[in-house]
Design a protein that fits this description.
Helix content is about 35%, strand content about 20%. By secondary structure, the protein is an alpha+beta fold. The chain folds into two domains: about 5-140, Creatine Amidinohydrolase, Chain A, domain 1; about 145-390, Alpha-Beta Complex (Creatine Amidinohydrolase). The longest helix is centred in the middle third of the chain and has 30 residues, at about 145-175.
């Protein structure tokens, strides 16, 4: 645990401390931020308080007194309910406002780990609880230089595989061979293995109306054939099969024929412009060193889609944090599903993926954006026109 760094972040947030709490390992964030592994089973509640100043301190059950042994600070014990309540009161004594893994109205479910009863307990003690969402992002979502390099390398391999997947569809159609969404999905999965990539879920290959389901998943016995005249969406996400690697996540569109239909072209151009407006908004804010929140980026894209008359057909957030899990713990670009007020901070990466999902077909264009101290950049290839598969 980097105590000095945690305390500096607490002071910057204007908080008196950060109270960590767990029972039966329900809060993986606590273990990752504190960088420890319990020395016993966790069948009883433990509390660990890091104040903005002074030494941290903990509270553990007597039969699991070694749970927090790896962490610095004085450890108190309890056995009865009353002892626990008094112990927690002493633990946070003198504090007015502290952070916990709590999110008002569950606006950020990624950090909403503390149960309602524990929140009630702390409030009854007379302490205000603030969300730890920004703190968690600071300690969880920032990438190291090595992680960025792994992301870029995964992107180079995946962009190559994506081109090969479209080419494979073309070859099959040219040879008049039967090919399905599932066939192309399995081709990509095989290429992942060959290229040293890992994904916790298979890619999404969707044609026509199937592409209007953002989480469509073809199965061998439940998928569509890909034919000439079809619209094809490929959503791919993977990372290097190495420790501490982070994901690369993209979506591209294609049409099986020499000329995309005008309806597809129009919708694609709207989605592309919405994507690019959001990218420019981020680039300008970072260059100007202006504080930027996730909801603002969503607004930059969604407002354009609304102006074009397609608001009801864009029904998911604009983007999500990216990390060791494809949906990371940093700020999401979201002012639809939630009002994400978390700051976009240097060292983090997120997707920008506007979509329009009509009854006949869906269109999405997804890129990854990495932000550092001075700039923001798209980390891989950016689709500018519908791919024509001939």
């Amino acid at each position: 645990m980097n105590l000095a760094e945690i305390q500096a972040a607490l002071r910057e947030e204007g908080l008196d401390g950060w109270l960590f709490f767990d029972h039966h390992r329900r809060d993986p964030l606590a273990y990752r931020v504190l960088k420890f592994t319990p020395n016993s089973i966790v069948s009883r509640r433990w509390y660990y308080f890091v104040p903005a100043h002074d030494e941290p301190r903990g509270l553990v059950h007597r039969i699991e007194a070694q749970t927090l042994a790896e962490l610095p600070g004085e450890m108190s014990t309890y056995a009865s309910w009353g002892e626990m309540v008094n112990g927690v009161r002493k633990l946070v004594g003198g504090s007015k406002r502290i952070a916990m893994q709590y999110s008002p109205k569950c606006a950020v479910p990624y950090v909403a780990m503390v149960d309602a009863g524990t929140v009630e307990l702390i409030r009854e003690i007379g302490v205000e609880i603030a969300t730890s969402a920004n703190l968690v992002q600071y300690f969880e979502a920032r990438w190291s230089k090595a992680q960025l390099e792994r992301h870029l390398e995964a992107g180079r391999r995946m962009d190559r595989i994506r081109r090969e997947a479209f080419e494979r569809i073309g070859a099959k159609l040219h040879a008049a061979e039967h090919v399905t969404e599932w066939d192309i999905q399995q081709f990509i999965v095989g290429r992942y293995r060959e290229e040293g990539l890992f994904a916790d879920h298979a890619p999404d290959i969707a044609v026509n109306a199937n592409a209007s389901n953002p989480h469509y998943e073809p199965k061998q016995n439940a998928c569509s054939a890909i034919r000439k005249g079809d619209i094809v969406l490929i959503d791919m996400f993977a990372k290097l099969d190495q420790p501490d690697a982070v994901y690369y996540d993209i979506t591209w569109m294609a049409f099986c024929g020499p000329q995309a239909p005008s309806a597809l072209e129009r919708v694609f151009h709207i989605v592309r412009e919405a994507r690019d407006r959001a990218i420019r908004y981020v680039e300008d804010a970072v260059a100007a060193k202006r504080e930027l929140c996730g909801y603002e980026v969503d607004d930059a894209a969604r407002s354009f889609i609304r102006e074009q008359g397609f608001a009801e057909y864009f029904f998911h957030r604009l983007g999500h944090s990216i990390g060791p899990e494809v949906h990371g713990t940093g700020a999401n670009m979201d002012n639809l599903e939630t009002h994400d007020e978390r700051k976009v901070i240097p060292g983090t990466c997120f997707s920008i993926e506007p979509g329009i999902y009509l009854p006949e077909f869906g269109v999405r264009s997804e890129v990854n954006v990495f932000v550092d101290e001075n700039s923001a950049r798209v980390t891989g290839e950016k689709q500018e026109a519908v791919v024509l598969i001939q």
